[in-house]
Amino acid sequence: MKKFLILLGCLILAVVVLCNPFVQWHEHQLKQAMAVLQRDTVTLNEIVPFDWDKVYTFPPYTSKTEIEEKIGFRSRAIEETVSEGMVQLIFVDGDKVTASVCGYASTLGYQVEFADMVAFEEEALFSVERKDGIVCLKEMGK
Length: 142
Prior knowledge:
5 helices; 8 strands; 34% helix; 30% strand
């Protein structure tokens, strides 16, 4: 029994160290918020259900090093896109990643389009459309 508890403790520690459960939980919360979105326009401030200061997106194949340079710190939560057409959103709160979304819109159920960075304080407005079961947010006014 003692060996089992030690093994279980090591497994839990490895999960916490290698993959931040809060980042994954926030990704899940964002997916749920997008799925029930019924408005024609929205700000990210209204729908993102966790704390964030800035959200970034990057062109396909941007390296993790380039991403870290842009956001100003290193994080294990950052993933690189591996193909065209992938959604990449990195939500940052201070000096930590609070959510790191990297996947295809067809799998995620949503996509968010903006130039490169949106700050919470901007209250940027997005149009909302649904195409083939995918919620599409496009930044307006830029």
